[in-house]
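Researcher: Next sequence.
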Amino acid sequence: MIIGNVCNVGLLAAAAGTTEEVTFGVDGLWSYELFGQTLWITTSHVSLVIVMLVIIAFAVIANRVIKKADPNEVPGTFLNIIEMAVEAVDSLTKSNMGEKGYKFSNYIGTLFLFLITANLSGLFGLRPPTADYGTTLGLALITFILIHYNGFKYEKFGHITKLFQPVLLTPINIIGELATPMSMSLRLFGNILSGTVMMGLIYGLLPMLLQVFIWPLFGVLHGYFDVFSGLIQSYVFCMLTMVFIAQTFGDEEG
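Model: Next structure:
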């Protein structure tokens, strides 16, 4: 669970000479006590639930469309889009992970769909769940577990002994392994959060009247911070996941 705090920044508005409160979207909705600790349900939780519901609804609709499809008839637009997406993920997984990595197509496809939906949710007034470190760290830890699970599966005890080759570099090798989830999670978190912060500052500090006259500029900014950056970071995270896992396969034939 993502544990967030209220994060409203009013000092920036005061410095800019306006009384409006600048918020980056991390607002506490309600709190509850658990084991003597006060935990908050924030807008990040709500956004995450909405993203999950959207993905589940899409999966249910896609499943019904596929089951009702007639192989003797020309597929509709929606079914064509699904087929193209599945083929693209399968091709991407196979080209980066080989034949043994083909079984990860479902996970990579789900991960990519989640990241795209979460990163683009800012276009609809939500706080992107990936702008919360709890979300990105959780995803990176899943990748970390998959890396070492497959490492022990294919490399056996050699997955451990390679950390001591050469012996003098053992501390660096261990740090490098532990740094993988940190670097992956911080990269995704930092890029999405920076876009959220920038748009929060722009909306919070510019007078409403001025925003009306320069609204086309907001489209350009959202196109870069939400769409372009969101798609790029989704692709990078999935690529790193595939590359790191594929490195554990070795030369053994699947």
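Model: The two ends are 37 Å apart (CA to CA). The chain has nine helices and four strands.
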